[in-house]
Amino acid sequence: MFVIIADQIDSRHDDDRVAGALADIEREHGEALALPPERTAGDELQLITASAETALEIALHLLRDEHWRVGIGLGAVRTPLPDSVREARGPAFLAARAAVEAADRRPTHCAVRGSSGDEDRVADLGALVDLLLTQRARWSEQGWEMHDLLEGGDTQADAAERIGITPQAASKRARAAGLKLDAEARASLSRLLADADRSQSAVGPTSEDTAA
């Protein structure tokens, strides 16, 4: 399972963004979550999913506007799950807590942590996520616009018509942002995260899995 803990950056000097983020996550990914996402502290949210793709997409969405630090925890959780994610327990929650604390010290504001061994493998995943985030940080407004349209189901021709540019210009924007490579990298990362999680989750909960 994947547990995400996201903490709003400098929330004392910013609007409360938790409610809006929770609504976005529920609307876009609600069916893939094991429990509804919740606010777990004044400026923090938490969620759990069995889908590596969903975990990665939510993390990337939160990190897009630079208002969040995000920790992704891999590992087992206690079952049956309770009614609330705030009551859920297991090594994956401890890993997510360690990850969000580590994210505070990273330029990308994101970290990945596992719950049981295989530290090199998890560190490799974190480095790949950092690379993806660093590449995305270089995108122009036009690159993000093209990304959003293509991810929404438009073809490049459709996107060109919506934006009011030629298909050739749309193709140039997509190439400049590396959108095809980004999509391929996300697919690969999702598979690697899923593989790592299966390895982590094979080790059952311990007596220390009481923190969320």
From TrEMBL:
<protein>
    <recommendedName>
        <fullName>DNA-binding protein</fullName>
    </recommendedName>
</protein>
<dbReference type="Pfam" id="PF16264">
    <property type="entry name" value="SatD"/>
</dbReference>
<dbReference type="InterPro" id="IPR032580">
    <property type="entry name" value="SatD"/>
</dbReference>
